[in-house]
Amino acid sequence: VQAERKLAESEAAAAALQGRWASELPGIAPEEAVALHQAMQERDARAEDIKERLNKSVTFLEEKEQSVQSLQQKLVELEKQLIQWQTEWQGNRKQLAEKEERLRQWVGEQRVEELIAVTQSQLDGLRKAAADSARRFKEADNLKQESAKKDVMARQALTSASEHLEQAQARWQQLLDQSPFDSEQAVLEAAIPADKAERLAAEIQHHRERERELVSQLRELEQKLGGAEVSEEQWLACTERLKLRRAEDEAALSAKARAERDLEDVQQRHVRWTELENKRVEVSHHGEQLSKLQAAFRGNAFVEYIAEEQLMQVSQAASQRLRFLTKQRYSLEVDSGGGFVICDDANGGVKRPVSTLSGGETFLTSLSLALALSAQIQLRGQYPLQFFFLDEGFGTLDPDLLDTVITSLEKLHDDRLAVGVISHVPELRARLPRKLVVIPASEAGGGSRVVLESL
After folding, report:
1. Domain boundaries, the chain
2. Burial degree of 366 (CB within 10 A; 0-12, 13-18, 19+)
3. pLDDT tens digits for 168-202?
4. Which residues sit opposite 352 in a β-bridge?
5. For 231-264, what is each residue's pLDDT tens digit?
6. Is it true that domain 301-454 has CATH number 3.40.50.300?
7. How far apart (Å, rounded) are the C-alpha atoms in residues 94 and 87?
8. Are 411 and 345 in contact (CB under 8 A)?
């Protein structure tokens, strides 16, 4: 009921609104009103846009008008400045013409540059002459100052010499009055020449030195004598003994010099003897070595020695390979008679003959010796032997030992040695990478065929 009432109210309100619409907007349907409203909104939006653009255009035009006014003012100022510059240029041009006329009156028809060059050259000459004059004036002034100094020094020296002369004359007169001579001429006649005076002074000096030496010797003799007196006979005897001792001393010195020369000669001879003795010992040692080599090369001794050394090397290489093949159980040695002996390392290192080995063990031993001998031949030969063939013998090996042997043979490829195996053992054939299979002749009369198979 309430809903119906609300519906009735809503219908009444809608009828009232429609009546009001028909009275206020006659001739316009409600559907057209929506389209007209949207059109009016669009026109309003365009009007607002145009109004905003007009506002911006007005501001832009005002700014441009101000810029035009500013440019016009600057143009007026520039025209004024141009007129001022033209006026100044005309005045400067007039002054230039006047100065050129004055310059033409001064220099005539000559070029100013030439006159300037000539004037500059004259000026340089005058400056150089002035510099030379200043230098000569300075030198003259220096000479004048030095001359003045020398003049002052000469005057001082003259004054001093005059004073010394007066003093010397007074001293000479005083000494002449005190001397036994009557006059200056007598002194000159009694004067001794300078060279003779020097010689006499030297003799006097020598005599005085000799006198001092003799006095010193006498004093020393008096101290040694201690008051005793020596007769002339004793003095002569002492003198003779002194001469004799001096002669003996000279003879001893001569003998010492001769002994030193002899010692030096002996030392040099000893050095030479030592060199020869060392050379003799070396030659003797070489001779002994040659004798031993001669004895060794006599007969088959040397060949047997080389064969024994080669056999030892082969046995050592074979022993290492046998240890690998037997898992460190057996090794190979050479007895004193040159035969092979098996060393059983798994049984305390007991040595036993090779005849005690089983068939498989004998094959492993033979294989080790063959590989070692092949390696020696490969090493010593002039041309490499790169192939090695084994014929059967693998049938006596158990599977584990067969695997060990095949692994050892595969490693031989690292030694640049190819091993060929002749065998009918299937396990061995399965391990070989390449095989030459020999197919026997058929009953139809065809011959044997060889086929290459690869894994």
Report:
1. 34-100, 122-164, 242-298, 301-454
2. middle
3. 888 878 877 777 777 777 777 777 778 888 888 88
4. 342
5. 778 878 888 888 999 999 999 999 999 999 999 9
6. yes
7. 11
8. no
